[in-house]
Amino acid sequence: MKSRLIALGIAALLSVTGVQAAEWSKGTPYVGAEFGTFHIKNNGHSDSKTAGDVYLGYAFSKYLGVQLNLGASTYAGNVRLRHYESLYVRGTVPFQQRFSLYGLAGYTRAEINTRNGAYKGTKGSFSYGTGIEFYGTRNTAFTLSYTQIIHATYPGGHNVSSNVASIGLIHYFGWPTVQ
Predict the structure, then answer these.
(1) What pTM, to 2 d.p., does this model score?
(2) Domain containing 50 — which CATH number?
(3) How far apart are CA 83 and CA 63, in angstroms?
C-alpha cells in the first residue's frame, strides 16, 4: 500500500509541465485541519458522525500541489473509520483576492472496524474531493470541502462507502495562493 502512495506521488511530480516547473521557485508548504460530518454506507445501512483530519502539503505554484491527509472518525452506527491516509494531487483555481476553488484526486488507504469487534480491515481506493478557500489574511484561509474517502469491499462482504463534508483552516508558509 505504501508503495502505491509513493508511486502516485512520483507520478504527480513527473506530470508537471515546463511552465509549471518554472514556477517551482515560488513553491510553499502548507498545513491545515478540518472538522466535519462523516457519512458511511455499509451494505445499504447509512449513518453520520463526527470526523476530523489534518493535512500537510506543498504547492509547487498557485495552481498545482500535492497533499497528505491523516484522519479518523467516531462510530457511525456499528462501523467506524478508524483511520485513513490519503495522498492527493491538488489543483487550485484562484479567483480575485479573496477565494479559490480546489480539487483533489489521489489514493486513500482506510481501516474500518466494528464496535463489537466482529471485523477489522484495511483497504485502499481512488479518492477525490473539492473545496473552496476564503482568505481572512494573505496566507490563511477558511475552507469548506467535500471528500469521497473510500469505496471498497472489506472482509465479511462489507461494501463500505464514506465521504466527509467539513470546514477547516489552512495556512500557507511564504507566498499566498491567491495574489
Answers:
(1) 0.77
(2) 2.40.160.20
(3) 29
Question: What's the total number of domains in the chain?
Answer: 1
In a domain, 89, yes or no: yes
User: Residue 35: CB partners within 8 Å, gap ≥ 6?
Assistant: 50, 51, 52, 166, 167, 168
Contact of 94 with 62, CB cutoff 8 Å: yes
Report the C-alpha gap between 65 and 47 in whole angstroms.
Answer: 33
Residue listed under C-alpha cell 463500505: 160
Q: What is the DSSP letter of 157?
A: G
Query: How sure is the predictor about 153, in pLDDT bands with cuts at 50, 70 and 90?
Result: confident
Can you give the residue range of the structural domain that contains 73? Answer: 2-11+33-172
Does the pLDDT value for residue 111 go beyond 60? Answer: yes
